[in-house]
Amino acid sequence: MAEVTETVLADGLKRIQADILAAFDALLPVPADPRAQLFEAMRYAAMGGGKRVRPLLLAAVAEMYGVDRDAAVRAGVAIESVHVYSLIHDDLPCMDNDDLRHGKPTVHKKWDEATAVLAGDSLHCFAFEVLADPAMSGDPFVRAELIQVLATAAGSHGMAGGQMMDIVAESSTFDLQTVTRLQQLKTGALLAASVEMGAVLGKVPHEGRKHLRAYARDIGLAFQIADDLLDHEGDEQAAGKALRKDADKGKETFVSLLGADRAREQARMLVDQAIGHLAQHGKEADLLRELARFIVERSH
In sequence order, what E strands does the chain have? Predict the structure, then answer.
């Protein structure tokens, strides 16, 4: 059984990675004018690697409700564009000042800081351009809700708000409750939006998504605990980026507050809990179950 479900996950990851790559390639052609460097930087960041966990979450939920694959991939491009823009900006000297991402030079290192800022800004806008396009859905109410979900998850009530809390953490002492809130915003909001957007495409009523939101909440926290463990114990070469930065800056993390063993135990409990929220679904939710397990077992 384990071999079967692992194949489901491996096939799902391989397929979404290929689909997202092809979609970015088609939707972001490089113009033959002075904007070329901007588009090259956008493509470099968007097509340069990554597990594509968020688009896979979105597509897996959408597939459960019979959504057309092309629509799920388009929405996946939108959420991945927001994720990639955030990474470009996170890597800048004014934020985390990183030189490597996915084992390659970060955008501001390959080009310059101005190009990196503009590439991030443009990918942010591109996400909503994709969602607002009638090619996304013939139903304007679906397009509007997709935009609302992603905008909320990306802004001050989501990822950007979490990043601000993360900056404040360098000069403050956060307790477990505050660190949990920080990570629910910084990391969990986009993961939750991925699940929610899949349900929006499937036209699942708002009240019918409660179990999916609970699943998303639990995997979001498990994802960040796993990240903290990788930062604490992982290999920089495998990760393709610098590690142990939070400890160097004196930031509190799940590992510093709980210890590695308790943090690992908590992540596994959250995964079990997340899988439990899918009890009403049959085999059609196997990919979501395996994704939850993958989140805590990944090596980078």
Answer: 100-101, 104-105
Q: Give the list of residues 6+ apart from residue 185 with CB closer than 8 angstroms, or none.
A: 157, 158, 159, 161, 162, 165
Interior/surface letters 132-157, b for 16+ CB within 10 angstroms, e for the rest: eeeebbeeeebbebbbebbbbbbeee
Residue type, 188: G
Ranges of each domain in the chain = 2-297
- Contact by Cβ (8 Å): 42, 85: no
Distance CA(102)–CA(271), nearest Å, equals: 26
Pairwise CA distance, residues 125 & 131, whole Å: 10
133-156: average pLDDT: 98
Contact by Cβ (8 Å): 184, 214: no
Residue-wise pLDDT for 89-100, tens only, equals 999 999 999 999
Nearest to 226 by CA among 213, 239, 237, 215: 239
Distance CA 178, CA 27 (A): 39
- Condensed to tens digits (0 to 9), the pLDDT of residues 199-252 reads 999 999 999 999 999 999 999 999 999 989 988 886 666 555 555 666 667 788
**Residues 159 and 190: beta-carbon distance below 8 Å:** yes
Start-to-end Cα distance in the chain: 25
**Span of 13-22, 57-66, 213-222, 225-234 with lowest mean pLDDT:** 225-234
Using an 8 Å Cβ cutoff, are 218 and 277 in contact? yes
Question: What is the three-class DSSP state of 231?
Answer: helix
| Sign, CA torsion 101/102/103/107 | negative
- pTM of the predicted structure, to 2 decimals: 0.91
CATH superfamily of 2-297: Farnesyl Diphosphate Synthase (1.10.600.10)
Contact assessment for residue 58 and residue 195, using Cβ atoms and an 8 Å cutoff: yes
